[in-house]
Amino acid sequence: MHVGPVTIDYDILVAGLRGDTGFTSQEFIDAMSFSLKYLRKLMGADETYQPFIIPGGGTSAMESVASVLRRGDKVLVVSNGVFGDRWKAIFNRYSVAVDVLKANPGEYVKPEEVEKAVEEEKYSLVTMTHVETSTGVKEPIGEVTKRIRDKVDLIAVDGVSSVGAETVKAKDNQVDIYLTASQKAIGVPPGAGLLVLSERAVSRLSEESVAGYYLNLKNWVDVMRNLEEGKGSYFATLPVHLIFMLVKAFELMEREGLENRIKRHERVAKGIRAGIESMGLDIVARKPEAYSNTVTGVIVKKANPSEVLKAVVSEGLELAPGVHPALAGKYFRIGHMGWVNPNDAVTTIAVLERVLKRMGEPINLGEGVRAVQNTLA
Amino acid sequence: MHVGPVTIDYDILVAGLRGDTGFTSQEFIDAMSFSLKYLRKLMGADETYQPFIIPGGGTSAMESVASVLRRGDKVLVVSNGVFGDRWKAIFNRYSVAVDVLKANPGEYVKPEEVEKAVEEEKYSLVTMTHVETSTGVKEPIGEVTKRIRDKVDLIAVDGVSSVGAETVKAKDNQVDIYLTASQKAIGVPPGAGLLVLSERAVSRLSEESVAGYYLNLKNWVDVMRNLEEGKGSYFATLPVHLIFMLVKAFELMEREGLENRIKRHERVAKGIRAGIESMGLDIVARKPEAYSNTVTGVIVKKANPSEVLKAVVSEGLELAPGVHPALAGKYFRIGHMGWVNPNDAVTTIAVLERVLKRMGEPINLGEGVRAVQNTLA
Amino acid sequence: MHVGPVTIDYDILVAGLRGDTGFTSQEFIDAMSFSLKYLRKLMGADETYQPFIIPGGGTSAMESVASVLRRGDKVLVVSNGVFGDRWKAIFNRYSVAVDVLKANPGEYVKPEEVEKAVEEEKYSLVTMTHVETSTGVKEPIGEVTKRIRDKVDLIAVDGVSSVGAETVKAKDNQVDIYLTASQKAIGVPPGAGLLVLSERAVSRLSEESVAGYYLNLKNWVDVMRNLEEGKGSYFATLPVHLIFMLVKAFELMEREGLENRIKRHERVAKGIRAGIESMGLDIVARKPEAYSNTVTGVIVKKANPSEVLKAVVSEGLELAPGVHPALAGKYFRIGHMGWVNPNDAVTTIAVLERVLKRMGEPINLGEGVRAVQNTLA
Amino acid sequence: MHVGPVTIDYDILVAGLRGDTGFTSQEFIDAMSFSLKYLRKLMGADETYQPFIIPGGGTSAMESVASVLRRGDKVLVVSNGVFGDRWKAIFNRYSVAVDVLKANPGEYVKPEEVEKAVEEEKYSLVTMTHVETSTGVKEPIGEVTKRIRDKVDLIAVDGVSSVGAETVKAKDNQVDIYLTASQKAIGVPPGAGLLVLSERAVSRLSEESVAGYYLNLKNWVDVMRNLEEGKGSYFATLPVHLIFMLVKAFELMEREGLENRIKRHERVAKGIRAGIESMGLDIVARKPEAYSNTVTGVIVKKANPSEVLKAVVSEGLELAPGVHPALAGKYFRIGHMGWVNPNDAVTTIAVLERVLKRMGEPINLGEGVRAVQNTLA
């Protein structure tokens, strides 16, 4: 129950056991073609969007967004925590201007605040974080884009902790760039960033962009088009073995159905929150509308979060540390994405009950798991 | 017999079958610690060098060298082909000046030419390519550094097609940055760039560098130090599963012995060249001192190289296309690195004999393999 | 939570990924040597016992016991259920006389009953079943052997559902033949029977035995001795890949410690029984002293056991059908052996609570898991 | 290039990576159903034949043939070597009479000799060995059955080293029992015996047979019928994980086509024999009509065969020892079955050339591989 790499199904891992598959092999080309096509579906995009699968992960995918910026462009960063702030840290390395709208920990920047900001200033790009991994807070992407779509040039959304577990509608919400990483709700090892770009975003790729070389989408766009069409193509070496795992993950997704997959995540998340609350602990996300399907921050009262993380490992559970500086030392995170199921919700709460009780939290053993059971019945 | 990803030993691939290992787990931290330490040994570096293992591959590792450059720095690129030229393409995206010394295809830039260039101009950085993957040509790194060491600030060497198969002496040759990628002579899937930096190079990492964010080694240096010391640390998600494979590859290397490993590569390379020459074909590298242990370019006479690549696949052999523009349509490449052995040399030549004869090359069936056998006896 | 093949750790499964290991390879010989030596330890045997690892499973290991019998021998079978009765079915195929002592379902044959039987008749062999897989009932082996040891020739114990999860003392209890199968509490795929034979039992192996060929231990004894000494040896092909998995399982056992392993099984079994009882359901084994660490039979009231088995599969849980004819249609079995842990106890009861409630059992949701939690606290 | 377990394709091995699949799971039942049906096709049998897949291997499958015999039956064993003699050793353990027709090493019993024998005596069963693994000699099954079919009750053929690599026609040749093992030309790890029985053979299964329990096909026949029809069924635990590998192997066979598969084996065998002969060495099988597609015995002149076996291992090649007592110390065996391809023929001969020359054989380096190349051109 980590936030990433998440627990991975062995059927996916073994799909990468390819001893001698080069990047020019037809099997690899076919695997990329399938993955690129499926990525559109996963992102709620259509044929007008260009999919990209590039080496790296979430941060490199975010930095590749610089490919659409030119010297002097203005960017508005809508930040709900550590990974929202990361957009700013990235753009600060380039010759662009960055403004930031910042939410209190556990809250999200309100759609009307974003609207106000884009009315006061003309931005080339607005970035948002669908689910902020540091707090588990979800931004209402659709409500924001409805208000700002006509007032900004490009909109980019970091879907690292949402794609594959939350409803994602690149096209309907008119998002220009939606991105994620392989090791989160897709449930594959780390090693790739995945993006879709609208036609408008693709048209911004040019020699004049501020981007560097490896993460410059201009260098990758023809490779992606060729591979999707079944033709070998090379710019830099792609993570060949990971792509075969991605194909397997996408096949499992398709078999489950994307809607069923999202409902499964909802069910597990609901169970976990019910268990946490019935133990008398606080959730970092302050209001139900900010809850996400993928990450739950848990504020402890008496226990030391880093001691909790160590103790649960010996009970067969892996959790993630809290990383939001404003809540340092006060919380830990439960990741519930990828191949999680209701049994994981039960187990997670059962282990936490026992461990937290031992650490002095006023737990009534059995109350947490009962609450989970009630949500699952 | 591809140039990369190369054929990978299954013991290495299965080392990555880790269903639930997060980046905060002790197993992962230990794996990174071991790998970083071993990387120094592999590079012929000592404790004064800082090792890095970062997501991506060869090109991203090359781009991360921008971390030591500042606005206005002058760089000399010593290029023997496509991947030499890539250094220039990378630095052109940054505010630095780039001069290039270029060799004819199949040749390498002579040490005295490099010496002359650095005497005429003061360079912050000179880059070289140990083995040029596009042609299989090896640059005599030690001879160059002897001549230029005192006349330039920093020296960086792309060891993508050499590290693990050729003698690499970062320390003895006073190279400041030696880099490679996981999927070449190390014999692991693609997904990581590996570098060592001298103290001088590390001292250049700063807020003022021209580098971006993800590939900026300043953002990674503390993470690498912490992980080597066995402490969890995070900047961006590392390719967790790949690192476990890297550990296995390094363990196998250690069991074989680095010198034995290089001799094995030499033996296979010699066998392959003997086979090629006895078939009456030309090798792209023009002189024996330019031969490498890892890549052999083969110039065909009557056959169409891309047809050869297709035909050998149905005989169970995978080769790589020629990519040097000056030799377009005239050659293909044999990669012989990683876990290759003398039997691979025999098989490769045997398949080529049969396929090339069918395609009209004047082959005397059996002469190629006999030549291989004679080198192996 | 099946009774076998049980859920298997992937580290064990991947240990069998050996593409080209023949039965004459040193790796295989070493793997057999290690496994045979470790088998003695696992069985509580000493150097005077001869270990055997032969193809097949529990039933073939039982039949191989015919290797110590001669025409006209008398055998006493102590049967607590289906697999006790199997001893009789086997011996009936040979020219020996068989008497059976039979317990009521859920009970075991009392030590004093066995004592009485062996006082009335002279038996060459008495067979017992340590844990009867069909009911989960444990026979008190030590108490029986204490009473009968001096009155019978040979004692054989079927430890199929006990070895690796219950205290097994071949030597201390003076058992002549202790046997098990790979796919039960050892936690390896099915494919091998494992036995230890006392010197007395080995001395009975002869041309005159009633046994056939493949399962005749006389044909295997020299092979086992040679392999243990590191020498290649052949009678019939051993399950090479499985042996590498067995080595891994034994290494994991050694790392855990055999006593810790038994305690872990006890803890899980106790948790499961607490959950079952707090749901108001009956356990097949009628008294606590008959409880086993490995199998729990559960008698349902309103639900149809075969419907329960189907329903839990869709909740990610696999259980085993009841097979005792006297309880046909009344119960199902929970296997809790191999690599089970307390989280499995929680999950099993949580799924059962939800499924059984849906099927009309008078379950108070949360009571079962609370009971498990209390035993684990 | 071992005679078994042979080198196994990793796609087959990884198909066995099933962590939690019990014998009652639908996946396993489906896997058995598919495998049983495919086995008929592989054996050249039709719907009138009953397929069996039982634990063990070749020897246990041979012993299971006792299921069709009754006390006092007469059996004729047609033996071309060690595994022919094994039929006699097996039947000697049962109350049946056994006559043996024996060929000189390297030869096979002539069809007319068998005909003569069955005319002189009435036999309930005649057994033959399609390819004798100890010598690589092939018996002309069709020619024998044509002559004897009407004169004997049942005919059983050991196809251990033929099924999957030689033309097998159970139906057309009116063979009643054709058997093989998983680890030979099928190319799966050891662990299962596979048989088809004609209606006549099935009708002989009865309580009165001389067979024991585990290898008594009467105990398995309903299980096989149920599993083929998709219904769970149990007698003793089947090698669940191996069955998933078998499915994969059968799928790969189907993709290749059985005829193509046999041609591939022929091509490799021919290449190997050409290499051996051009090195001036003798083949154990004395005449071309006795050559098999799967095993070649090689008689050396100066080298010590057991030293050869050790030496080739360090060159990456695994061969098998000679086991025919009449040729003790004079030969070794090359297995060429399963997933072998022409490159294996080249490699095998190349390694042998180098190793045997070193050991004093009068080898002209390169002649062997040239001969292989000529057969492959």
UniProtKB/TrEMBL annotation, chains A, B, C, D:
It comes from the Archaea. One of its GO terms (biological process) is glycine biosynthetic process, by transamination of glyoxylate. Residues 25-327 form the Aminotransferase class V domain. Its cofactor is pyridoxal 5'-phosphate. Coiled coil: none annotated. Keywords: Aminotransferase, Pyridoxal phosphate, Transferase. Gene3D superfamilies: Aspartate Aminotransferase, domain 1 (3.90.1150.10), Type I PLP-dependent aspartate aminotransferase-like (Major domain) (3.40.640.10). One of its GO terms (molecular function) is alanine-glyoxylate transaminase activity. Belongs to the class-V pyridoxal-phosphate-dependent aminotransferase family. This is Alanine--glyoxylate aminotransferase family protein.
